[in-house]
Design brief:
The protein is of the alpha/beta class. It folds into 2 domains: 323 residues, Rossmann fold (3-Layer(aba) Sandwich), CATH 3.40.50; 220 residues, Nucleotidyltransferase, domain 5 (2-Layer Sandwich). The chain is built from 19 helices and 23 strands. A hairpin with a 7-residue loop joins strand 13 and strand 14.
């Protein structure tokens, strides 16, 4: 009789090695997986549960015999389930409640690094449902993104086509996969699905749920299972970039379960994560298995991670992507964008007088009534960018704002900036920023230093009065350029980081800008990055950093557009 794969996995973890195709390989797992496997093994001796793996092993035999993979380097080869996959699915399909005879586990969360074979694994499991599952059942493949949903749906469909070439038993179309003889159907669901209700499924898999901001899709799936005694909802994902979204809530529940704070035998978390970030850089490549259990099987390549690490050492965006996607280390808005050593460095003293009768690039980050407002002027000389950022605050807010995470506005309003001979923070009368005060500041540059802003970049939001005072007919006649924020700040943000790293920005060691740097985290949206406030707190002001990035965006737009 075959020893349960859960038990085999436990023994391999304890001895620290596993035999793969006759070769011993070192095996390393994180403490969370070790604890979950130990708990599952305790179920084998628990009188409340029955272990009946016969149907599960039938599924394994089907998948390893008939589920042909669709992508190189394993194209048209049957899937070979790895021990960690067999342990995961064996737990789901083998444990039953003694009192009811129903499957014990009805919800599972699998967190694993990218490129570890999870999509192929899920597609094979769906095909097992289609060909050897019980009749009259419906299944759902779900994901927040339609494209991601289609990846697993398509792989499931193509596996079916490679097995049932002539559509003798099964068939498919754009929206469903069917076994007509047994009345089995697999459909898909994403955020774009118009009618998410009205389904009647017994099992569902939700892929890359880190992209979900809320539980809309998950709840729709669960509602569709409400009439079944046996139901199964499997979530598979890497970590992601959305803070406090659906996946973060799932992780909190999973960790509470692992820590013994929640007693729910119907739930199963399999969290492949690094225990510490230092393991990534330690030089022991086998530590990477903790988030990448398929490494030792050759599914994911050590060389891929090595290349990712090299890029991460040179580029912050690559580092964030690598930590999040390859090692499941959450890098959210609680992490500072730049270490202080990157932006806090010795700088030569300079004043606006050195740029008399010159041209500069301006940018503004205009505020609502009670916020910090910024205006900047940037000059280039000998490959160095000299940037001055002027801050404004209403007088009614200055003392109250001093409590904002280390801000010292009152002190800064009384300290003269040697670059301009004006305070670092200019106090505006009343309880709001008069945008004429910002336009007046640019006019003083004109009057006092004969410095002409070649153009002033601005964001469309809350800019009407500023543009009124910049207009030639109604104000000072400054040229302006609208700069869209969001993803359009990605490239200039990277350029700011690069120039700070190379010490090519001289901002006069402005203490208010340093304060803004300390509050800035980075938000990743697709392939772009954006500045955002650390911890998402309103009180953490990043206006100076946004203005600096907008200065770069304005310079870039002027260079391109002439």
């Amino acid at each position: 009789m075959i020893e349960p794969y859960i038990k085999q996995y436990q023994k391999a973890i304890e001895r620290g090695w596993i035999e793969i195709n006759g070769v011993k390989k070192r095996l390393v797992v994180g403490w969370k997986i070790k604890k979950v496997v130990d708990i599952l093994c305790s179920y084998l001796e628990d009188e409340r549960f029955i272990f009946e793996p016969g149907n599960c092993y039938k599924r394994f035999k089907f998948e390893e015999s008939f589920c042909l993979q669709g992508y190189a380097p394993f194209y048209n080869q049957p899937i070979q389930l790895m021990l960690w996959q067999k342990a995961f699915f064996e737990a789901i399909y083998s444990f039953k409640e003694r009192s009811t005879g129903h499957l014990l586990i009805n919800e599972a969360l699998l967190e694993v690094g990218r490129k570890n074979g999870k999509s192929t694994m899920v597609a094979a499991d769906m095909n097992a449902n289609l060909f050897v599952g019980g009749g009259g059942k419906q299944y759902i493949i779900a994901s927040n993104d339609e494209k991601q949903c289609n990846l697993i749906f398509s792989e499931t469909k193509h596996m079916r086509q490679r097995l049932d070439v002539k559509n003798e038993i099964t068939n498919d179309n754009l929206v469903e996969i069917r076994n007509n003889a047994k009345n089995i159907k697999i459909t898909k669901m994403s955020s774009k699905t118009q009618n998410k209700d009205g389904r009647n499924c017994v099992a569902a898999v939700m892929d890359e749920c880190h992209d979900c901001k809320d539980d809309e899709i998950a709840e729709a799936v669960k509602r569709s299972m409400s009439t079944h005694d046996e139901r199964l909802f499997i979530m598979v994902s890497t970590n992601g970039f959305i803070n406090d979204g659906f996946f973060d809530k799932q992780l909190r529940y999973a960790n509470a379960w692992i820590n013994g704070e929640i007693d729910n035998p119907h739930y199963l978390p399999f969290l492949y994560e690094q225990d510490e970030e230092s393991e990534i850089w330690s030089g022991d490549v086998e530590q990477w298995q903790k988030a990448n259990p398929s490494l030792i099987y050759g599914v994911k390549k050590y060389a891929f991670i090595e290349d990712s690490i090299l890029k991460a050492q040179l580029d912050r965006e690559s580092r964030i992507h690598m930590l999040t996607k390859d090692f499941n280390i959450k890098v959210g808005n609680s992490t500072q964008w730049l270490e202080s050593t990157i932006y806090d460095y010795e700088q030569d003293k300079w004043t606006l007088e050195e740029f008399r009768r010159g041209y500069g690039i301006g940018a503004v980050d205009l505020s609502d009534t009670g916020d910090l407002t910024c205006a900047s002027i940037m000059f280039t000389k000998d490959n160095m960018k000299y940037v001055h950022i002027q801050f404004f605050i209403p007088e009614s807010k200055i003392k109250k704002k001093d409590s904002d995470n280390g801000a010292r506005y009152e002190e800064w309003s009384k300290t003269i900036n040697p670059v301009t001979n004006e305070p670092y923070v200019i106090v505006c009368q009343g309880n709001r920023i008069n945008q004429k005060d910002v336009a007046d500041w640019y006019q003083r540059l004109r009057r006092n230093y004969e410095i002409e802003p070649y153009t002033i970049g601005y964001d469309r939001w809350h800019s009407d009065m500023f543009l009124h005072w910049c207009d030639k007919k109604t104000g000072y006649g400054f040229r302006t350029e609208m700069i869209s924020q969001g993803k359009y700040l990605s490239f200039p943000m990277k350029m700011v980081e690069r120039d700070l790293t190379d010490r090519l920005i001289n901002y006069g060691n402005n203490p208010v800008l340093k304060y803004c740097f300390s509050n800035t985290s980075v938000k990743i949206v697709g392939d772009s990055i954006q500045p955002e406030k650390m911890d998402g707190l309103y009180s953490r002001k990043i206006d100076g950093v946004v203005t600096l990035i907008m200065s770069y965006a304005t310079l870039d737009k002027v260079d391109i557009g002439g």
